[in-house]
What we know:
With 269 residues, the protein is of the alpha/beta class. It is built from ten helices and seven strands. 36% of the residues lie in helices and 14% in strands. The chain is globular, with a radius of gyration of 18 Å. The protein starts with a helix and ends in a 9-residue tail after the last strand. Keywords: Methyltransferase, Restriction system, S-adenosyl-L-methionine, Transferase.
Amino acid sequence: xxxxxxxxxxxxxxxxxxxxxxxxxxxxxxxxxxxxxxxxxxxxxxxxxxxxxxxxxxxxxxxxxxxxxxxxxxxxxxxxxxxxxxxxxxxxxxxxxxxxxxxxxxxxxxxxxxxxxxxxxxxxxxxxxxxxxxxxxxxxxxxxxxxxxxxxxxxxxxxxxxxxxxxxxxxxxxxxxxxxxxxxxxxxxxxxxxxxxxxxxxxxxxxxxxxxxxxxxxxxxxxxxxxxxxxxxxxxxxxxxxxxxxxxxxxxxxxxxxxxxxxxxxxxx
Length: 269
């Protein structure tokens, strides 16, 4: 091992803009799925992150903001930053896991994104989003949002709070009810999707969100209202359905929604 490290070119690795923790995390959830299974669908494989970035970013993008409200170790935002150019974007993230935030900060340092370190925030995005606009009187809106939020998590303790009046503008489609059994099945991704749509900058904000494929046809109230909003505002740019078992330890079929909030797309025939 020492001999291998002595001959390894770290300079070359850094120059290739590599997400150092992507491969490590993929290895861990592959070999230790008993421990990491809960988070497997919350982690995006590096290859998928790269595809999403190439689809989202046109040529010549400069001075833009990139946001992930459930960032994990940062695989998605790093892929987007590399596609845009590190000096042409500022990354904003929030995640409820302090350990994930530590990984993300180190990843930013290793990938020439030190200028974004101050925007990596630890906290509950749904209850208390931390990135505010310049006037400090509302949430910041972003040029690019990319996220693979957790699909199903028990948030029953906060459900009634999130359904309160102060959250209604952001969670306009509603809040899932608490099931009588299996509270871990609460569809928290529906909350993140509403938050992401709310956080898109007007006149050209773009987003890519990983969702369960079942969301596309679900007949329940909240998914229907979200889809209706996306269609009515002409935000949908495309959907990519991923192969089965794309994540290491979950059989959930997933798709990526590509959204665009351009005024030119809104309510035109």
